[in-house]
């Protein structure tokens, strides 16, 4: 890893990294702890991140954190593959559930009716508004139909690229001119599963459906690697056929008929799983750090 040098070989990584890590941000207290990860020790944290830990330890600490509302993350890299698991508890509130700035459009006209229809002005590139059905909006700067200004957020129904339906405006004053319609994003509450439950029925999402079999095979490969380590007391030796074959046998037991196992992926994964590569660790670590910030 990036914080260690040749002179640190043979030392505890946490203790050897502590000073250099602390220098990255003087405003953060960084302490090295080499004792047991007991429940008493873990109970003082808001977030716990495990890496390079046995599955049994992940399950034990995951159950403990879930029961006490402590956010729990597992991040690991083996060879060219990495994994990341997040459990933020049963009542995790997302303050801003969407990416980017809230949608905003200039009002051209608002009809009196039930429902009222808001006509938005087009943008310079010819596009209309960017609202979606069910979005909550507020109005400001409207002249004439001033009842809309400061009104509680109302849901919209999209008619087309330039028109939105809102609630009953039949009793409002006639619209004259101006105004902005702006999206309001409300916090969302999410419920996360503990690791023990997620392992039973993993929900794997991929950008490209063609990648799903590969992702499922890697998920099983990581579990088979835990089983191999529990059985042998070590990771598979690099490029040792017998070790890779044993991991593959363990993976076959964990697979199902519904999810065909890509045996080439499992074999390749097992052959290099004892290696640590800084670029892979950096990517997985960056993703884990972003989840910690959430």
TrEMBL record:
Keyword field: Ligase
Gene3D superfamilies tied to this protein: Ubiquitin-activating enzyme E1, FCCH domain (2.40.30.180), Ubiquitin-activating enzyme E1, inactive adenylation domain, subdomain 1 (3.50.50.80), Ubiquitin-activating enzyme E1, inactive adenylation domain, subdomain 2 (3.40.50.12550)
Domain named Ubiquitin-activating enzyme E1 FCCH: residues: 114-185
GO molecular function, a single term: ubiquitin-like modifier activating enzyme activity
Pathway: Protein modification; protein ubiquitination
Top-rank taxon: Eukaryota
Residues in Ubiquitin-activating enzyme E1 four-helix bundle domain copies: 187-254
Pfam families per UniProt: E1_4HB (PF16191), E1_FCCH (PF16190)
Family from the record: Belongs to the ubiquitin-activating E1 family.
Protein name as it appears in the record: UBA1 enzyme
């Amino acid at each position: 890893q990036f914080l260690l040098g040749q002179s640190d070989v043979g030392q505890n990584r946490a203790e050897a990294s502590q000073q250099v890590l602390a220098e990255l941000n003087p405003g953060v207290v960084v302490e090295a702890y080499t004792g047991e990860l007991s429940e008493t020790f873990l109970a003082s944290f808001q977030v716990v991140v495990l890496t390079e830990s046995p599955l049994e330890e992940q399950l034990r600490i995951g159950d403990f954190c879930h029961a006490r509302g402590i956010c729990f993350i597992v991040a690991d890299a083996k060879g060219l593959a990495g994994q990341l698991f997040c459990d933020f508890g049963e009542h995790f509130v997302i303050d801003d559930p969407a990416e980017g700035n809230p949608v905003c459009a200039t009002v051209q006209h608002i009809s009196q009716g039930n429902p009222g229809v808001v006509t938005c002005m087009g943008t310079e590139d010819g596009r209309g508004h960017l609202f979606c059905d069910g979005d909550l909006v507020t109005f400001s700067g409207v002249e004439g139909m001033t009842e809309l200004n400061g009104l509680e957020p109302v849901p919209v129904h999209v008619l087309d690229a330039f028109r939105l339906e809102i609630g009953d405006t039949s009793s409002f004053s006639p619209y004259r001119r101006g105004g902005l319609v702006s999206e309001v994003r409300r916090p969302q509450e999410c419920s996360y599963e503990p690791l023990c439950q997620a392992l039973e029925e993993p929900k794997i999402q991929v950008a490209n459906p063609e990648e799903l079999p590969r992702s499922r095979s890697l998920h099983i490969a990581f579990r088979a690697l835990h089983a191999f380590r529990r059985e042998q007391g070590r990771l598979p030796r690099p490029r040792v056929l017998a070790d890779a074959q044993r991991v593959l046998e363990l993976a076959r037991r964990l697979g199902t008929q519904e999810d065909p196992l890509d045996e080439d992926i499992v074999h390749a994964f097992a052959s290099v799983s004892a290696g640590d590569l800084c670029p892979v660790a950096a990517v997985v670590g960056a993703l884990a750090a972003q989840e910690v910030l959430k």
